[in-house]
Amino acid sequence: MLKLTTGHWRIMPRLPRELESLARMLAYILGRRPDEFGLVLEEGGWVPVKQLLQSLHEEPGFARVRREDLERLAALVTPPRLEVAGERVRSLDPAPPELRRESGGPLPSSLYLAIPPKIHTLVWDEGLKPPPGRELVLARRPDLARRLGRRRAHDPTPVTVAAQAAARAGIAFQAYGEELFLVAAPIPREFIQMPGPSKEVPPPKAAAKPKAPPTPGTFMLDFPQMLTGKPARGKQRDEAVWKKGARALRKKQGKKEK
Known about the structure:
Elements: E1 2-3, E2 10-11, H1 17-31, E3 47-48, H2 49-57, H3 67-76, E4 82-85, E5 88-91, E6 100-102, E7 110-115, H4 120-126, E8 136-139, H5 142-150, E9 157-162, H6 163-168, E10 174-176, E11 180-183, E12 192-193, H7 223-228, H8 233-257
Antiparallel strand pairs: 1-2, 3-5, 4-5, 6-10, 7-9, 8-11, 9-12, 10-11
């Protein structure tokens, strides 16, 4: 039996070498410091498989880990130290740590997160709101906030929260491990610093090309009149007005001659 450096995991002699490394990493992530990887364990120590894989793929040497690897590890380690159930996974030994605590020491003056561009304008107008049934997850360090933001969007927008000022206004911050803070209430816009939403200027409309003046010595063909033998509607009106005026002029001249 091979004893891992965690002091808790004992694995079977024939366990593939790549799974030995994965076992050590999972023991640390799920049984020691999930906060270091931006993970918040659910009740019972569970975490979504998707979130765990995202955090693993950011680590050198673990970019190709798949759900099947987690299931193999859970089946091969005796006694079981990892449990995969549905879309969730948890550590059985070491037991999931209880990292929630009141902020304790002084709250950092600023905390950080990064939001998807699609909610940029909404946060700019209304502030931060926790997802339904969940909490806002804020990071102590901007680089960890960017890392978490990139799991949701390719180019997330950085947001800085004036944590101490918000706490003085009555907003409760709960520390989670050493790196994260959880907030269950909305954070008003006045405690948030972020770049303004970009105002996309519509491209100018292409100017209509001016009609080229007719070349001297040319004339415009009246196709409606050529095809039907009748002048176009506009010309019909002009001709009717001209004829009416001509008749009136002849009538007036006739009266003078009398």
